[in-house]
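Changelog excerpt: complex records now keep ligands as SMILES alongside chain sequences, and the structure block spans every component. Example after the change:
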Amino acid sequence: MSTQREPPAPSQSEGDVNHSPERRRWQAGHLDDATRALLARDSAAFLHQSVSTPCLSAIRKAEGIWIEDSAGRRYMDFHGNNVHHVGYAHPHVVAAIKAQLDALSFAPRRFASETAVRLAEALGERFRALTGQHGRVLFTTGGSDAIEVALKLARIATGRFKTLSFWDSFHGAGFGAASVGGESLFRSGAAVGPLLPGTEHVAPFGCYRCPYGHAVDADGAPDLARCRLACAAMVKYVLEREGDVAAVVAEPARAVPYLPPPGYWQTVREACHAHGALLVFDEIPTGLGKTGRFFAAEHDGAAPDIIVLGKALGGGILPIAACVARAELDVAGAYAFGHYTHEKNPVTAAAALATLEVIEREDLVAHAARVGAHALARLHDMKRRHALVGDVRGRGLLLGLDLVADRDTKAPAAAAAERVLYRALSRGLSFKTTMGNVLTLTPPLVTTIAQMDAALEILDICLAEETAHAAP
Ligand SMILES: Cc1ncc(COP(=O)(O)O)c(C=O)c1O
């Protein structure tokens, strides 16, 4: 019997988002001939995949909170793949990269490089501030790879291979990361399987749409006396039943966004201790101040054993990610479990050091908390005025509006969310939708109150337009 499978049909492999009628309509009204020509070359040159190629438009500049398309149209980038915490092309980061290029442009792994050591020390210190324990580090070029490092370290340190992670989570595109991830788009259905064995999943926390069926109040808050943290209890239950899980892998605040109910991470932390599992926090999008604390985990009083950083670590310019583990987990010295060519690259390390300096000097973590609180208050006001908004969630500059067709049934208003997205784009605001119907705003930490107000004004107008559009 042949083991070959039919390749998926193009519409399936490219995903509907790349070809939706709404996207086509927006393109018809906004792209000039030169942009169309570049998109055609991009489409012919790259392998197609969902949510990237074929592209929406083309970019020619990225600076501060702004991106500019090839026709000169400017957008506030409230998505930025969470790489642009310090704003695009921050002069301090650019200067540090240039200086490092002149001084030392590469370090073979067998040679210690002052810059890479300084970065490892700085992140180790940050880890100590979070957990009270010294942290040791490995660098990779991407977040997905840093997750792989964490998974391998957890296996070696515990002598176990199973993991417990969450449906609907994303941890990267590699086999290990996709195996612990829980989004079918990235697990590629059955097309790339089988994935790693032993990667168990449970439903995540997500109070507004509690997978365990519990209700929330009008402000989206759970009734803890009733639900008794069923979501955390399930983690505990599976850890106990399996008995040999190496690690729980999770985003401490889900990028959807969804915030953990009070007590969630303490309960899971205790369960991990009780059953010998490590707690791995993926802070690739949420770390470095996004949520108004340096680590998202700081909000919840539970210390991880391993933390994974990436994205904004390279200042929105260079690719660098880090797996930071408590020093006692440094038990894999006989194995090359994170053997990456750019492991000690001084240029990417210089970008990361400069990024940390900017975050500190410009007090960006506290700034993100202030601007985020201001935004959240305005978003709640929008919820009062727009029936389309079922729930408002957020912490710092990780913000979301859950759009619903009906507040009682909470039916997700995915088509409306897509229309709002393209309307906002036309008015100069870029963000993304997650889970189909959640408008997800992740602006840079350098966003000012005035810029936030301008962006939210656009959103407000677009929500009103959508309501008018839907009116009979
Ligand atoms: C939570 C999370 N983990 C891991 C990753 C993967 O990072 P990278 O794309 O750098 O491999 C991402 C990227 O979006 C992410 O959001």
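Confidence is low (pLDDT under 50) at residues 1-14. The two ends are 57 Å apart (CA to CA).
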